[in-house]
Design goal:
CATH class of the largest domain in chain B: Alpha Beta
Number of strands of chain A: 0
Number of helices of chain B: 10
Distance between the termini of chain A: 25 Å
Largest sheet of chain A: none
Structural class of chain A: mainly alpha
CATH superfamily of the largest domain in chain B: P-loop containing nucleotide triphosphate hydrolases
Oligomer: heterodimer
Largest interface: A-B, 24 and 32 residues
Strand order of the largest sheet of chain B: 5-6-7-3-8-9
Number of strands of chain B: 13
CATH architecture of the largest domain in chain B: 3-Layer(aba) Sandwich
Largest sheet of chain B: 6 strands, mixed
Order of helices and strands of chain B: EEEHEEHHHEHEHEEHEHEEHEH
Shape of chain B: elongated
Chain lengths: ~280, ~300
Amino acid sequence: MKMLWILALKELRDGFRNRWVAAAIIVLAILALVLSVLGSAPTGSVRVSELDISVISLASLSVYLIPLIALMLSYDALVGEFERGTMMLLLAYPVTRWQIIVGKFLGHLMILLIAIVVGYGGTVVVLTLVTDSGTEGWQAYATMMASTLVLGAVFIALGYLISVIVRERATAAGAAIGLWLVFVVLYDLLLFGALTMDEDQKISQQLFSMLMLVSPTDAYRVLNLSLFEGVSEAAGIAGVASEAGMSGMLLASSLLLWIILPLVATLLLFRRREL
Amino acid sequence: MKNTSNQPAVSLNAVSKSYGSETVVSDVSLNIQAGECVVLVGHNGAGKTTLMKLMLGLTRPTTGSVEVLGANPAFSSSVAQHKSLGYLPESVAFYEAMSGREILAFFARLKGVAVGECDRLLDVVGLADAANRRVGTYSKGMRQRLGLAQAMLGNPRLLFLDEPTTGLDPGLRHQFYELIEDLHKTGATSLISSHALSEVEARANRFIIMKSGVMIASGTLDELFLQAALPVRLNIAVASGTASSVAERLGSEISISNISETTLSLSCFNGDKMSVIRRIGDLGDLVEDLQIKLPKLDEVYSHFMNREMS
């Protein structure tokens, strides 16, 4: 446990030192601020909490941004150390390979946690104080922050998998971008393209739900947009998720599996790796 | 755990390592006893670094078995042993963005060593003034010194040093060997790979000569010298002008490699050495001085290298 903490702390310090934490906080804070200010316009006369609107807009944008930040943090984590030669030295110390993976993971997770809490959380605190808009919907907002961290964790884990498979940092960077495109853009594009083309309705409701469930980004989206009544009403998709049989538990399990499986695969590959 | 008192610190049993079709270590068996200082010599690519990686568990043998401090280093259960182990890789690399002090403190924590020891070690290797600078700004020599400092953390029982003195100035080299000697006095074991044969000659208990992955010779300098059967050189000094008459009196069965006004260089096999010395003694006052030159490590080394070639 102590080893994990030492390793995680090093990653966290690295995050502060190379301004990663600061950059991520600024990006997320600006995003949250802009969306909250602009987002309050369409509420109009309908009685919708501003926080609920923020959840919708922030969740929609986090789907793109958080995976990118997470992958940029993680793609280099192992291949970079192999390539520079620092891994050889690290492994000569009393640390096991799983401790290195989990320690790094915890460290990177802390960086994301700080960025999300300060960037998103700080913004909402400021807004609440300034506009005196009350704290309705704070539960949905808190869930949004927590699930955003989980989404980040998914892509940190996927980044490690890339990092342990490829042999060069440049390849890892390319693969990370490719992975982002597939998970964040192409998958949905193909899914909705297929739906549009599907005039005979061959894609059943169940199949569609499954396809949404297995994609971490869609699971995240559905989780945030439909779990809380206020949010789903504002998003105009009230009851969609429950009709499709997607409970919060199921969606969360999908995300957790997306963390655990890549991490386990990374560890197995790392253990086989010879330096 | 077994009693470690009589057990070798490192034990390799018929170890081979191949990457694909390329064999980098071939059928190496060796024991390093606790307290020994063993030097690995050999050309680049002779398998020295791979041997160390096998002992550290960074890589696994294709065939054969490795035991370090009584455990298989490739098992993750043996990482606890790494507490009593120091390693300096060849051309050591560090986290460039961290300062020397931060790096050393990080490693100290991993090893469970008091972070206070870092300052002492930084001072020992002469990095105290540069301790707060980013390692990215360090010269090659400074990195090497930081590498030594981290290998020394926590007074290791077993040291693996891969070309430890490259990039060090003579003063620091000397200091480095003193540090190793101090550790040896406390019973530490070390395995050092080196190209600087003249440097390690006087400091090691034993030498292992590697070539193309094969251990071609192993032993103390004296043993290697006998194995190599290299000629001993005897330099004798004589009064001016008497050199040629001395040569005549020594007789034709003694080979004289060089002759000048006042000196003669003789060479003979080690077994004949005493009889040659007696012959010289018979010359009485004609001989003013006698020096016996045993072959140096580099001569022994090149002998073994050339023998393998033919």
